[in-house]
Amino acid sequence: MAHCFLATCQPGKDIVAKLSKLLSEQQIRSKKGLLSIIDVIIKLAMRGAPLRGNWVKKTGEENGNFIFFVNWKSEFDKDLKDHLEHVPKNAKFTSPRIQNEIISLCESIIRERVIATVQTYWSVMADETTDVSAIEQMSICIRFVNSNMEVCEEFLGFVKLTKMDAQSVFDVLIPTLKGWGLQ
């Protein structure tokens, strides 16, 4: 009996070490799965394809592009398949909330990279519009001369507006540009 107890107390064989190893493996599996999911989102965004589709009441699932391509990719991506099969449903990183969060993070990274290329001289272009869901918003673009002395124009993002008058646009535009690191 004591022999069995002592065998479990050897370095690397105790419960804490085994649980730590299991947790580490789970984290690695989740990270690889998340990277594959991010790849699907980026590829769909590059094509301008919507992620969502229709909600199927019968199955309680969505049949949009995102789920279709995640399932398709999991057929040949062992890490993604492993992730989808072994994590709890609430940790698959496939919910619309997580999709939107990943899109938002990609947006921030792209904007930071664009702004990092801006030299001393730049100008801003802003246009207000109402989107398809009747939300007033402003699109913001920047025009600048890059290090090769070429004129560039880049889209920086959309910002919600409460009113579409000149003062409201100004009151939103200036803090937004400052928040993005443009002074």
Please summarize what this structure is:
This is DUF4371 domain-containing protein. With 183 residues, the protein is an alpha+beta fold. 51% of the residues lie in helices and 18% in strands.
Unreliable stretches covering 5 or more consecutive residues:
none
Structural class: alpha+beta
**Overall pLDDT score:** 85
Strand ordering within the main sheet: 3-4-5
Kindly provide the radius of gyration, computed on alpha-carbon positions and rounded to a whole number of angstroms: 24 Å
Largest sheet report: 3 strands, antiparallel
Strand percent estimate: 15-25%
Quaternary arrangement of the chains shown? single chain
In one word, what is the shape? Answer: extended
What's the number of structural domains? 2
Distance between the termini: 73 Å
- What portion of residues is helical? 40-55%
The sequence of SSEs as H and E is: HHEEHHHEEEH
Total helix count?
Answer: 6
Number of strands: 5
What does this protein look like?
This protein is α+β, with helices and mostly antiparallel strands. It has two domains: 90 residues, no CATH class; 63 residues, Nuclear Transport Factor 2, Chain: A, CATH 3.10.450. It has a three-stranded antiparallel β-sheet with strand order 3-4-5. A hairpin with a 5-residue loop joins strand 4 and strand 5. Helix 2 packs across helix 3. Pfam families: DUF4371 (PF14291).
